[in-house]
Amino acid sequence: MSERVxxxxxxxxxxxxxxxxxxxxxxxxxxxxxxxxxxxxxxGGAPSDAQTRSETIAQALQDVFSFWGLPxxxxxxxxxxxxxxxxxxxxxxxxxxxxxxxxxxxxxxLWRLNPLIWEGVETYPMLIIAFPTRELLAQAMGSTxxxxxxxxxxxxxxxxxxxxxGMTGVPQSISVPYQDAAIVTWHEIAHWLTYLVCLRxxxxxxxxxxxxxxxxxxxxxxxxxxxxxxxxxxxxWAQQNELTVDLGVFDTYQIGLSVVAYLVEAKGVxxxxxxxxxxxxxPEAEIAAIETGWRDWLQDH
Length: 301
Ligand SMILES: [Zn+2]
What we know:
It contains 12 helices and 11 strands. It has helices spanning 13-16, 50-67, 88-91, 134-141, 162-168, 182-201, 210-225, 229-240, 249-267, 269-274, 276-281, 283-299; strands spanning 8-11, 30-35, 38-43, 83-85, 99-102, 110-113, 116-118, 121-123, 126-131, 146-152, 172-177. Helix 2 (50-67) crosses helix 6, helix 7 (210-225) crosses helix 9 (249-267) and helix 8 (229-240) crosses helix 9. The radius of gyration is 19 Å and the shape is globular. Residues 8-10, 187, 191, 214, 217 line the site of zinc ion.
C-alpha cells in the first residue's frame, strides 16, 4: 500500500458555532477495553455503562455494513483477551497486521490485537477512541470544526494535542464522541467500509474525489438515522449551480450525498462499487456523464 496517509474527517457544521473547547491543565488519560473488532480507548476513563456503549458501537458497525448488503468483518479470535506484548515488539513489526495498542499510560502495557478478515481481505483491527464529550474531542483535535475522524495509518492531525497524537499512533483508529452521536459513528465507520471495498477492488481510496468519499459516508449515516432534508437542499442548489468535482467544504458533504444517493438508487449498489475506479481515472468525465440524470432524479424526489 502507498505510504501516503490520508486523514478523512467529518465536518460538523451545525455544531461548530456552539462548541467551545474547555481549557484543562492536565492531559486526560484513557482506559482500554477489548472490543470485538479491536479495542476501545475511553478517554478520561471507562464510563459505568462502558459495556453497553461498546455493544452500541459494534452494532453501529454492523448497521453500516448491512446497510450496504455487506458482511461485517469476521470477529477476531480471542478478542476478549488481547495478548500482552513486550515494547520491543512494536519496532520489529512488519506487514499490514496486527495492530499494537497501549494500555492505560500508568501501566504501560502493550496489547497485540489480531487482524480482521473481511471478504478475504486481511486488515488492521480498529481502535475506537471514545470521547465523553464533543468539547474534549475538539480540544484533542485542536479544532471545533470536526465531529469525528477516521484515520487509516498512524497520522497526526495538524494542530492536535500531543497526548492525542500518541493515541492515534496506531495503524487505524476512529475518534468519536460517544454521547448522542450515532450519526458521527456511522459516518466514520462508513469511511472504513469504503476503505475495505477499495482494498477488495484493488483501488486506492485516497484518489477518490472527496465528494464521493464524503457522499458515501453521509448517504450511509443519513439513511440510517432517517434524515432526508438534504434532498430539498440539493434540489434548490442544483437550480443555481453546476455540478463539479471541486465543491466547497459544505457541499462536498451535502451534494456529494445527493450524487451517491442518485448513483446507488439509479444504478444499484453493485454497479456503484464497480464503477468507483472511473471516479479515480476521470472524475470530470464522470460528473459530465451523470449531471443530467442526477438533475432529473432530484426533480423527481
Ligand atoms: Zn467524513
